[in-house]
Amino acid sequence: MRLDKLLAQAGFGSRGQIKKLIRSRQVRVDGEFAVADNLNVDPSLQDITVSGKPFSYSPDVYYILNKPNGVVSAVRDEQHQTVIDLIDPSDRRTGLYPVGRLDRDTEGLILITNNGPLGFRLLHPKHHVDKTYYVEVNDELHPDAPSFFENGIAFLDGTVCKPAKLQIISSSPEISCAYITISEGKLHQVKKMFLAYGVKVTYLKRISFGPFELGDFPVGKYRELTEEEKKDLKDYLD
Q: What pLDDT was estimated at residue 238?
């Protein structure tokens, strides 16, 4: 692969920035300074360093993480632990980021990858990627609740949500439990939808995102996608 293309894919900047990096003698291949942008290299066979640091390149990676309460869905944060902090340093790649977000107090499934365009495609409205949550609220969910959510909900600021599917698990004046499936991801959407119904969310956990299921995977742990899950992901790469 061409050296400039390799560095671009690894996230070292624009074509101009990479050209400047090479011409300022910041890149070495097998101990020698690289002298051409189009130098043909193979990182699996050669030792490459950038600004004195070893360079390792690998294909795109995809992890499913069970996000704990208190962790933020961000690459970095000065005050709180991030989902990237939960990834072992040996598994991190340049450009690793969470696809979409979960509120800091929301648990559950989040997809993490270094494939930049993937997040845009997964979150694009044309794909209508369903997201299912397990939710607990502080009051009863009456028999009219599923139709209330299915008809779409308008917030006080004029925001209108698409229809959502609500499945009541149990209901009582103290606590009610349900599954809710939505196909969009507005800020605090699930919590606001239940507030519009007249109850407050006390616990929220995303259990599926598109074709990916959390199952009983431990909180705070992550894993690579299975080969079958990677096949499902290809639908969003076109």
A: 55
Q: Which amino acid is located at 207 in the chain? A: I
- Chain length of the chain: 238
The pLDDT score that the predictor gives to residue 86 is: 97
Q: What is the mean pLDDT of residues 14-38?
A: 92
pTM, two decimals, is 0.76
Residue 44: pLDDT over 60: no
Which residue in 38, 34, 30, 28 sits closest to 6, CA to CA?
38
Please choose, from the candidates 32, 15, 34, the residue with its C-alpha nearest in 3D space to the C-alpha of residue 24: 34
The full set of domains in the chain, from first to last, is 3-54 (3.10.290.10), 62-125+216-236 (3.30.70.580), 130-209 (3.30.70.1560)
**Distance (Å, rounded) from C-alpha 155 to C-alpha 159?**
5
- 103 is annotated as an active-site residue: yes
Q: Write down the catalytic residue from 60, 77, 85, 103.
A: 103
Say how many C-beta atoms besides its own lie within 10 A of residue 51's C-beta. Answer: 11
Phi (first) and psi of residue 73, to 5 degrees: -85, 75
Using alpha carbons only, what angle is made at residue 235 by residues 163 and 211, rounded to the nearest 5 degrees?
55
Q: What is the pLDDT of residue 198?
A: 97
